[in-house]
Amino acid sequence: MLDLTNIREELRAHYDLSPSMELAEEMSDIHARMDRVMPMIDWAIHAPYVRAINQLKKQRNAVVLAHNYMTPQIYHGISDVVGDSLHLAIKATEVEADVIVQCGVHFMAETSKILNPAKTVLMPDMEAGCSLAESITADGIAEMRAMYPGAPVVSYVNTTAEVKAASDICCTSANAAQIVAAMEGDTVIMTPDKWLAQNVAKQVPQKRIVWWDGACIVHEQFTAQDLRDFRDWNPGLKIIAHPECPPDVVAEADYAGSTANIQDWVTREHPKQVMLVTECSMAANISDANPGVEFLGPCNMCPYMQKITLEKVLWSLHSMTGAVEVDPAVAERARLAVQRMIDLSRRLAA
Ligand code: SF4
Questions:
Q1: How far away, in angstroms, is 131 Cα from ligand 1 center?
Q2: At what angle do helices 328-349 and 85-92 cross, to 10 degrees?
Q3: Ligand 1 and 131: CB distance under 6 A
Q4: What is the pLDDT of residue 91?
Q5: How would you classify the pairing of strands 99-103 and 81-83?
Q6: Which fold has domain 4-130+305-319?
């Protein structure tokens, strides 16, 4: 566990991190990207960290990859690449920097390391896990293979390197249906997200899909009744759900898709009022780019994603600690599963 008291002392000895309205004004171009969701007084607290991190990134030849669920100060303030798991995985193969700072959860950093074994991949907090990734091990994959001999294993990218290495191919919520449809044979094993698997089963009825019993602790909190209540209270409300939600929740939505699909849908359709049935930071991050859209709904936050803070990012770049390592033999097999997904996604999109 990180010793935040010592970290704070050390950081304050090297950087001026005092809240500053003057600096906030100076950096108002960055604040303009999150103006709707962050008062200037809060920006005055974050701006010194953003300045220090952006300077350190140059010194270390580092890039920051940030998931759509990061807080606005990370997403808009320090990131070089933002996106969903698929986009970050692909971009991880293209970066030329020596250091990647992964602002997301641990399996994402492992994926970056798997795809970039020669680079240093820093994880600002090693305890930023994921309920899905923690729900299954390589033994679980072996169990499923024994139950369904010959069936290909499609594992969500929200898995550890060991689980990826034991799988035939990976998928993300953006490409899961296409990947499953492209598999040979009648039966496909999907791990570890039972809700994603059941949502894909509806889209790919020609396959018999069997699944592992994992779930995302954020998306499984939403209920179909919540969505009906919000619609009753706000006639005309559009509802967009992430496919990690249970199928009856997805069925109540006007549209379902990955975080990248959600972002595209909102930009394209420009609804007056929308409820994003996903992690709460997503709405905050796309709010300023969609000024005419009012975002409604409960704020379910991912406790793992929220572990990544500006302070921890600054510490990882300052101390160059938190490097993610993956056993080379495991990495090689995991890379095959991730690369097959990337290649197949590109072929299907062409
Ligand atoms: S939102 Fe769900 S799937 Fe994403 S990191 Fe958090 S627990 Fe895992």
A1: 6
A2: 110
A3: yes
A4: 87
A5: unpaired
A6: Rossmann fold (3.40.50)
Distance CA(155)–CA(340), nearest Å, equals 12
Find out whether the beta carbon of 66 lies less than 6 Å from any atom of ligand 1: no
Q: Where are the domains of the chain?
A: 4-130+305-319, 133-216, 219-296
β-bridge mates for residue 66, sequence order:
82, 103
Locate the ligand 1 atom nearest the alpha carbon of residue 131 and give its number. 7
Q: Which CATH class is domain 133-216?
A: alpha beta
How many A from CA of 28 to the centre of ligand 1?
31
Q: How far is the CA of 98 from the centre of ligand 1 (A)?
A: 27
Query: In whole angstroms, what is the distance from residue 3 CA to residue 223 CA?
Result: 38
Task: Give the whole-number percent of the chain exceeding pLDDT 90.
Answer: 92
Give tens-digit pLDDT for 84-103. 877 887 888 888 899 999 99
Which residue lies with its CA nearest to atom 3 of ligand 1? 216
- Give the β-pairing of 208-211 and 187-191: parallel
* C-alpha of residue 50 to centroid of ligand 1, in Å: 25
Question: pLDDT (tens digit, 9 = 90+) per residue, 206-245?
Answer: 999 999 999 999 999 999 999 999 999 999 999 999 999 9
Share of the chain above pLDDT 70, in %: 100
For the chain, the residue count is: 350
Q: Is the CB of 132 under 6 A from ligand 1?
A: yes
pLDDT tens for each residue of 317-339 = 999 999 999 999 999 999 999 99
- CA–centroid distance, 244 to ligand 1, in Å, is 9
Q: Helices 310-319 and 4-14, interaxial angle, to 10°?
A: 70
- Residue 244 annotated as part of some ligand binding site: yes
Instruction: Tell the CATH topology of 219-296.
Output: Rossmann fold (3.40.50)
219-296 and 4-130+305-319 share a CATH fold = yes
- The answer to whether the CB of 158 is under 6 A from ligand 1 is yes
Is 243 labelled as part of a ligand binding site? yes
